[in-house]
């Protein structure tokens, strides 16, 4: 059997620069161009490694479903070094299962129900502060919001707003920038900056945050996680190993948990601003929820049942994720030679799932570049013909934070569209590497809205 067709690009770096350059434009075409030339499976070299790229949903679903069998997680070297080999996304086997079990359990529906008011408090605090800001920088606001939400879950009330919080957020940004950088440790490179940021985060977390006692009745995710991993360890596992696993888990979950949700909120504001009909329908949905609360004599605070009524909001979130795709590629690695649709995927090669490409494929989404939340309307009635939606991945590594992310974004949109009108200052250019960005961070002028009964 032969390798799939493709192009290996330049020596060493392969097609990395071609890929990154394409992702830094507002309409990345790397994947579509390669599919035209080579088909739905092709070989290339990205981030210094030999890759087979899968662009068809059925192929991708097969790869994701086989995680832990002939395929394992396979993020590039820079990513592993920056987040840590023991983080959930990078670990395998029994330790991965134990870590994942703990995280999934702490984010299950019954637990999320109890977190609605905590997340809402953070959103209200953030949006209230907008009255004194002109213009508001939506990127900064959503980043700090999403960061505070995941920090609250993992660290409780020990990490409040303030200088430590600000410094940590900045360092997480540097870490993120180095995830897919060339892994050369020279001073000033993105990779080196990311490793230094990682070290500072660990130091601050241990010295200034987790060493503080957690207020009584507050959960202590950090300590409970470490205890859970200790219980599930093989005899002889050292405390040093447990500490390293805990550091990697915290760093990976904090990073995965806020950069992704923040850029989804950012792009949602952009798309909604550009589509007044979407804003009008969102406002109608959320004003309806407020009215129903008042008629029922309920509080002005939201609860889980209110959240479950936000149907159109879910379509807006799905459509935002479809278009901006915070995680554009899922990386795996073949642990043996795999025979796949007439080709061989050689042992040791990366198997890269082009999640973003699926969402921009006109075969599944009509006018794929158009923001149209209504396209998700009939999906629940018509599951068999549902277009592929892979923003949260699939298979055993399906994103454990998907429900939390949806909850945060929904509550944010609720308060945004019912409390404020806004205008874009303009001039932003979108790019998508390493995560979706807007060049000016989306600046807006906001005006308080008055709700009429
Ligand atoms: C809109 C927001 C989010 C998006 C688009 C997103 C996307 C994804 C995707 C695509 C994967 C699978 C990667 C792969 O298969 O290689 C994943 C995994 C993961 N996500 Fe999320 N995520 C989001 C929010 C969150 C949040 C809020 C958390 C925090 C709890 C989180 C924590 C994780 C973790 C720990 C994994 C690794 C799971 C494993 O390897 O078993 N994510 N995410």
From TrEMBL:
Q: Which domain of life is it from?
A: Eukaryota
Its primary localisation, in coarse terms, equals membrane
- Keyword Aminoacyl-tRNA synthetase listed: no
Instruction: Name the keywords, alphabetized.
Output: Heme, Iron, Lipid biosynthesis, Lipid metabolism, Membrane, Metal-binding, Monooxygenase, Oxidoreductase, Signal, Steroid biosynthesis, Transmembrane, Transmembrane helix
InterPro entries, A to Z:
Cyt_P450 (IPR001128), Cyt_P450_CS (IPR017972), Cyt_P450_E_grp-I (IPR002401), Cyt_P450_sf (IPR036396)
Q: Which Pfam families does the entry mention?
A: p450 (PF00067)
- Which segments of the protein form a coiled coil according to its record? none
Membrane topology (UniProt): Single-pass membrane protein
Cell location: Membrane
Name the family. Answer: Belongs to the cytochrome P450 family.
Could you identify this protein by its name? Cytochrome P450
List the taxonomic lineage.
Eukaryota, Viridiplantae, Streptophyta, Embryophyta, Bryophyta
């Amino acid at each position: 059997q032969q390798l799939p067709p493709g192009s290996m690009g330049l020596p060493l770096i392969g097609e990395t620069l071609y890929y990154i350059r394409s992702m830094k434009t507002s309409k990345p075409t790397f994947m579509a161009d390669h599919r035209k030339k080579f088909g739905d499976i092709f070989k290339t070299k990205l981030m210094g490694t030999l890759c087979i790229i899968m662009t068809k949903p059925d192929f991708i679903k097969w790869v994701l479903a086989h995680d832990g069998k002939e395929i394992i997680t396979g993020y590039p070297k820079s990513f592993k070094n920056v987040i840590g080999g023991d983080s959930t996304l990078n670990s395998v086997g029994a330790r991965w299962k134990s870590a994942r079990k703990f995280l999934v359990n702490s984010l299950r529906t019954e637990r999320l129900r109890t977190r609605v008011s905590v997340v809402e408090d953070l959103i209200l605090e953030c949006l209230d502060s907008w009255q004194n800001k002109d213009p508001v920088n939506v990127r900064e606001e959503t980043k700090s919001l999403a960061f505070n939400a995941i920090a609250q879950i993992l660290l409780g009330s020990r990490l409040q707003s303030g200088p430590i919080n600000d410094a940590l957020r900045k360092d997480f940004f540097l870490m993120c920038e180095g995830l897919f950088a060339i892994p050369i440790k020279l001073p000033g490179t993105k990779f080196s900056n990311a490793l230094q940021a990682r070290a500072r985060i660990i130091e601050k977390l241990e010295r200034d945050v987790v060493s503080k006692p957690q207020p009584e009745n507050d959960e202590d995710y950090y300590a409970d996680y470490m205890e859970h991993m200790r219980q599930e360890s093989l005899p002889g596992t050292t405390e040093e190993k447990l500490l390293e696993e805990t550091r990697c888990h915290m760093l990976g979950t904090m990073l995965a948990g806020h950069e992704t949700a923040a850029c989804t909120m950012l792009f949602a504001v952009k798309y909604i601003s550009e589509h007044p009909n979407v804003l009008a329908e969102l406002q109608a949905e959320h004003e309806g929820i407020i009215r129903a609360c008042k008629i029922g004599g309920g509080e002005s605070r939201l609860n889980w049942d209110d959240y479950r009524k936000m149907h159109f909001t879910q379509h807006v979130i799905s459509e935002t994720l479809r278009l901006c795709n915070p995680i554009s590629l899922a990386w795996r690695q073949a642990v043996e030679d795999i025979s796949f649709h007439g080709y061989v995927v050689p042992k040791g090669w990366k198997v890269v799932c082009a999640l973003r490409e699926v969402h921009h494929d006109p075969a599944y989404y009509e006018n794929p570049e158009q923001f149209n939340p209504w396209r998700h309307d009939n999906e629940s009635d018509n599951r068999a013909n549902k277009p592929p939606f892979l923003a949260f991945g699939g298979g055993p590594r399906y994103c454990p934070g998907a429900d939390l992310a949806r909850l945060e974004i929904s509550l944010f949109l609720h308060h945004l569209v019912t409390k404020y009108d806004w205008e874009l200052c303009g001039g932003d250019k979108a790019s998508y590497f390493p995560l979706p960005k807007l060049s000016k961070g989306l600046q807006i002028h906001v005006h308080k809205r008055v709700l009429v009964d």
